[in-house]
Design goal:
199 residues, three-stranded antiparallel sheet, mainly alpha, two-stranded antiparallel ribbon, elongated
Length: 199
């Protein structure tokens, strides 16, 4: 049986966009420059690592905590300024978002550790250490949100504490986003072991 040949990859030299040969068109879909700026691209990672990284699990996972946090903070702020405007719906949204928030942060944290290990073979590089510190602060802040929400979200003090806790987590999320966007399209070549399995 004939083995299926891997399709060639091409990279746009000015912007770094990578695509399959069959997807090449007259212009780069990312920056709009003509096709002539593309050159053949050789994937340096092992097929297993590359396949997992191209699923973009971590970039997708980081959107869940941000979304739930923004819902909680928006609902609380609207309720603080307009206490008679659908209080049951707004406080219910804030409570629900606060309760699921730590689960979403943990998912993003775990996927980030796996992504870092796959991409760089180590999670102890300077940028990744910085990301781990901010992620840990965000994770700790997220553990307080369900307790504050269930303690009595109708209480002004609990709302203020939840807003403070959420703001700390949001600042961490912004710092993490800025650090992460520079790492998206880079990584070490070869294979790597995770949980005893080679990728």
């Amino acid at each position: 049986m004939k083995e299926k040949q891997e399709e060639k990859l091409y990279i746009c030299k000015p912007c770094g966009y990578v695509m399959k040969e069959s997807e090449l068109q007259d212009v780069c879909p990312a920056c709009g420059l003509p096709k002539k700026v593309f050159e053949q691209y050789k994937e340096r990672m092992s097929p297993g690592r590359s396949k997992i990284l191209h699923l973009d699990l971590h970039p997708i996972a980081v959107h869940f905590p941000q979304t739930t946090l923004v819902f909680a903070l928006q609902a609380l702020l609207i309720n603080l300024f307009f206490p008679n405007f659908y209080p049951e719906i707004l406080l219910g949204t804030a409570k629900f978002s606060a309760v699921i928030f730590p689960f979403t942060v943990f998912g993003a944290f775990l996927s980030g550790m796996i992504d870092g290990k796959l991409r760089f073979k180590s999670v102890t590089t300077p940028i990744l250490k910085k990301k781990i510190i901010y992620s840990t602060v965000m994770l700790i802040a997220s553990f307080f949100t369900p307790f504050l929400a269930w303690k009595g979200i109708d209480d002004l003090q609990s709302k203020i504490l939840l807003l403070i806790c959420g703001t700390i987590a949001l600042i961490c999320g912004i710092v993490l986003g800025h650090a992460g966007k520079r790492l998206m399209n880079i990584g070490m070549g070869g294979a790597v072991k995770i949980w005893g399995r080679k990728f």
